[in-house]
């Protein structure tokens, strides 16, 4: 199986569960000295860049940190969105990327890169872009000012397209082959990821004027919180359209009775494995040992999560904050209580 990684592998960092910003310093991408030394060391240290991405890396060295952050935000969001699923996005490596369920998480990377680069522009971190220069929305009330420093969605979108898609665009496969279908699927889903970020961007305003009178407002373009992007993409994922190649080598919908997917929707070309058992070749970790919910009938319920193998019940001790009291002024003090709960674990 041939499998692709959209942006690149962030060396040594995907397995760390630490979310603190400090931990990012372990990543060669985020060591500022690497930029001073010059293009070669930084770009050659990144595992998994395609030829085209290496060139872009050299041209846009100051962007690389944000691409790394964006990709990581995407992976973290994937792990959050899929935490109650059999496949929980925890194996982002070569093999797990072989299947569409896994592959489809990569649109979250494309989206994460738009997000990170657009913000970096606004914050003045990049030499080739600045605040958004998006046109004033037509429906903005006439006396409100337009042009606070907004997230540069336009630039972030274009850069993500250039960089994340480079890997796919530099490949070529025989017309009609499975690989060509997957390439088209990846490009389609990357675009859907970017468009979802773009669709959720909104106008944000700030009041000015004498003591909160709000007689004057300044407004700018603002990206949505990335959690919203994740929520929206998860929904699209659950209603993704099945596709196949037609005789002219184009990707078309398998079931023509449904509305054709747009560039905002996710698509897939093969069913995922069921992820019930560990399988090296599909990158499935299996669900043995996963926590499940005895009373839920959803994917997190023991029946579905454990694939009918049954579960073991344990008593587990958990520590909680409890008896919280508000103290004048201004803090909350809690006790720590231990509680015994039932936990259910897949056999
Ligand atoms: C992915 O595959 C490449 C080439 O086969 C290999 O060099 C690399 O170590 C693999 N990475 C992981 C995380 O398994
Ligand atoms: C692993 O998955 C592959 C592809 O779906 C399948 O052919 C193979 O039988 C599976 N292996 C095991 C041990 O289940
Ligand atoms: C995801 O599932 C694997 C086993 O299938 C488990 O080892 C891992 O802890 C899970 N990750 C999270 C974040 O729940
Ligand atoms: C288990 O699922 C039920 C029904 O969906 C839900 O009400 C409950 O909060 C869940 N329990 C846990 C521990 O998540």
TrEMBL record:
One MF term in the entry's GO annotations:
frizzled binding
Subcellular locations according to the entry:
Secreted, Extracellular space, Extracellular matrix
Alphabetized Gene3D superfamilies for the sequence: 3.30.2460.20
In this entry, which stretches build a coiled coil? none
Identify the main location: secreted
- Keywords in alphabetical order, please: Developmental protein, Disulfide bond, Extracellular matrix, Glycoprotein, Lipoprotein, Secreted, Wnt signaling pathway
**Keyword Cell membrane, does the record have it?**
no
Short name of any one Pfam family annotated for the protein: wnt
Any one GO CC term of the record: extracellular space
Q: Which GO terms describe its biological process?
A: animal organ development; canonical Wnt signaling pathway; cell fate commitment; neuron differentiation
Could you tell me which InterPro entries the record lists for this protein? Wnt, Wnt_C, Wnt_CS
Protein purpose:
Ligand for members of the frizzled family of seven transmembrane receptors.
Q: Which family does it belong to?
A: Belongs to the Wnt family.
- Provide the protein name: Protein Wnt
Originating species: Anabas testudineus
Q: Which gene encodes it?
A: WNT5A
């Amino acid at each position: 199986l041939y499998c692709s990684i959209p942006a690149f592998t962030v060396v040594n960092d995907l397995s760390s569960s630490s979310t603190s910003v400090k931990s990012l310093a372990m990543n060669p991408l985020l060591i500022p000295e690497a930029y001073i030394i010059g293009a070669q060391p930084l770009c050659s240290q990144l595992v998994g860049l395609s030829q085209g991405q290496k060139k872009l890396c050299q041209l846009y060295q100051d962007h690389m940190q944000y691409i790394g952050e964006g990709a990581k935000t995407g992976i973290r969001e994937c792990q959050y969105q899929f935490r109650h699923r059999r496949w929980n996005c925890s194996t982002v490596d070569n093999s797990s990327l072989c299947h569409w369920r896994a592959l489809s998480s990569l649109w979250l990377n494309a989206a994460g890169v738009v997000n990170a680069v657009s913000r970096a522009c606004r914050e003045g971190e990049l030499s080739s872009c600045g605040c958004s220069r998006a046109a004033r929305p037509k429906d903005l009330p006439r006396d409100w000012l337009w042009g606070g420093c907004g997230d540069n969605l336009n630039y972030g979108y274009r850069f993500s397209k250039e960089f994340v898609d480079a890997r796919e665009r530099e490949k070529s496969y025989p017309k009609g082959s499975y690989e060509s279908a997957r390439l088209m699927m990846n490009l389609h889903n990357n675009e859907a990821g970017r468009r979802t970020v773009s669709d959720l961007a909104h106008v944000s305003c700030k009041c000015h004027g004498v003591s909160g009178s709000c007689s004057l407002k300044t407004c700018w373009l603002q990206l949505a919180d990335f959690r919203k992007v994740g929520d929206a993409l998860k929904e699209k994922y659950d209603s993704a359209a099945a596709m196949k190649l037609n005789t002219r080598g184009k990707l078309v919908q398998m079931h023509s009775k449904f509305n054709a997917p747009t560039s905002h929707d996710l698509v897939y070309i093969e069913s995922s494995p069921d992820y019930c058992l560990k399988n090296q070749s599909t990158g499935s970790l299996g669900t043995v040992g996963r926590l499940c919910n005895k009373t839920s009938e959803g994917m997190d319920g023991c029946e579905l999560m454990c694939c009918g193998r049954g579960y073991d019940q344990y008593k587990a001790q958990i520590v909680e904050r409890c008896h919280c009291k508000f103290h004048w002024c201004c803090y909350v003090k809690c006790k720590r209580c231990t509680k015994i709960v039932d936990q259910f674990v897949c056999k």
